[in-house]
Amino acid sequence: MFAADTVMATKPFSREAGRRLGEDLVSRLGGTPNACWLFSSPGEGVEELLVGIHEVVGTDSIVGCTTDGEISTAGFSTDTAVLAGIATDQINFHVTSAEGLIDDSQEAGIRLAQGLPPEVSYMQIFSDGLTGNGCAILRGIASVLGEDLPISGGTAGDASRFERTLQFAGRRVLTDAIVAIGFSGDFKVGTGVRSGWSPVGTAKIVTRASGNVVYELNGEPALDVFKRFLGKHADKLPAVGVEYPLGIVSTSGVPGEEDHDLMRATMSVNREDGSISFAGEIPEGSAVRLTCGDNDSILKGTEDATRLALTDLGDASPRMAFFYSCMARKIVLGRRTKEETEVLHRTLGKRLPVIGFYTYGEYCRMRCGGPSMLHNETATVSVIGV
Fold first, then answer.
1. Is the separation of the CB atoms in 78 and 147 below 8 Å?
2. Listed residue (87, 83, 53) closest to 67, CA to CA
3. For residue 245, cis peptide bond before it (omega within 30 degrees of 0)
4. Which residues contact 350 (CB under 8 A, 6 or more apart)?
5. Considering 49, 74, 231, 258, which has the largest number of Cβ atoms within 10 A of its Cβ?
6. What SS3 state is found at 142?
7. Are 13 and 79 in contact (CB under 8 A)?
8. Is the pTM of this model over 0.90?
């Protein structure tokens, strides 16, 4: 038995609105869900909304977060809350959380992983997009559960306010935290990730870096390299950087398999020392490429990611899709943002339930069998099949 569906509510949020949302979901599923996902616009009433949902759905296996835009089977929306549920006797769900990302993200990842049983074969995570280091979180998880465990999800947003994000676990509302839902049982998962940005020019070596700060490329200040590339647009850094992310060159080593750069978005620039800070770690000594794209190539990236997920799923029947896309893509797409979910629906089929959100960073493995990574500016698709 497997049933899945999504429902949506608009503001204002309240406990009663949460109860109605939960009742709508239970009605659509024809019974109590085993697990729920809630992605919500930030604002007044979010905590009460979660309480109302929890009172109705009859499960503590609820995860989610605030967003930079919501995604459901109905499409792209803002100022809404979207709720999904799965009712099945084939999958067991396990929810856990860890706080204190700002103090030590890697240690929080370790504590999170220790809260899951060893039989978990897939997990989704949602972390604070303002305080946590997603790369360190993944290192912590991998130290407990191994690098082969496929991980999907995203970092929480707050509608581009960059003030505070919230994470949901059961009926608890957290911040500076990471929440996870682990899957075990009889199911399959297919994942896909693509950006749509294309490399420009030759690769450059990161000759000096620390964490997410790049000081030098090919021995010269990183900002000088970007200035030559951007020309008159360089004065608009870091804002214009969402249109020209840096790609960490990645080679799969598999003959015939397409390479895909790990994207990094610019966050800030230091015009005194010429360094640039990115929304994710960039290892010293790595090869990187400047990239560019347009609306059509971004949407093609969404289609490619979806097809990769379906291919990865193999002969299993798709039952539920999760879509986590970067808020930078939403900025670039502008009025065409709704087309990203339209591409998703066309590729997956309009009847397949879809839930997700626009993130401040995405989690997904680079390819089937590869390690899970923190991405920027990408579309990530995960499809659950049985």
1. no
2. 83
3. no
4. none
5. 49
6. helix
7. no
8. yes
The angle formed by the CA atoms of residues 310, 315 and 317, to the nearest 5 degrees, is 75
The dihedral sign for the CA sequence 52, 359, 132, 139 = positive
CA angle 356, 362, 367 (to 5 degrees): 105
Scanning 59-133, the segments in alpha helix (DSSP H) are 105-114
Distance CA 71, CA 338 (A): 9
For 148, which DSSP code? T
> CB-based contacts of 334: which residues, under 8 Å, 6+ apart?
none
C-alpha to C-alpha distance for 261 and 259, rounded to whole angstroms = 7
pLDDT values of the chain reduced to their tens digit, one per residue, 386 residues: 999 999 999 999 999 999 999 999 999 999 999 999 999 999 999 999 999 999 999 999 999 999 999 999 999 999 999 999 999 999 999 999 999 999 999 999 999 999 999 999 999 999 999 998 999 999 999 999 999 999 999 999 999 999 999 999 999 999 999 999 999 999 999 999 999 999 988 999 999 999 999 999 999 999 999 999 999 888 899 988 889 999 999 755 544 445 678 999 999 999 999 999 999 999 999 999 999 989 999 999 999 999 999 999 999 999 999 999 999 999 999 999 999 999 999 999 989 999 999 999 999 998 877 899 999 999 999 999 99
**Quick check: 292 and 225 in contact, CB under 8 A?**
no
Q: At 296, list the tokens.
A: 């059509």
3-state SS class at 272: coil
Rounded-to-10 torsion of CA 102, 105, 107, 110: 140
Residue type, 122: Y
Distance in angstroms (rounded) separating the CA atoms of residues 41 and 357: 10
Sheet with 70-72, edge to edge strand ranges = 75-77, 70-72, 354-359, 318-326, 379-385, 188-194
Token pair recorded at residue 305: 């990611």
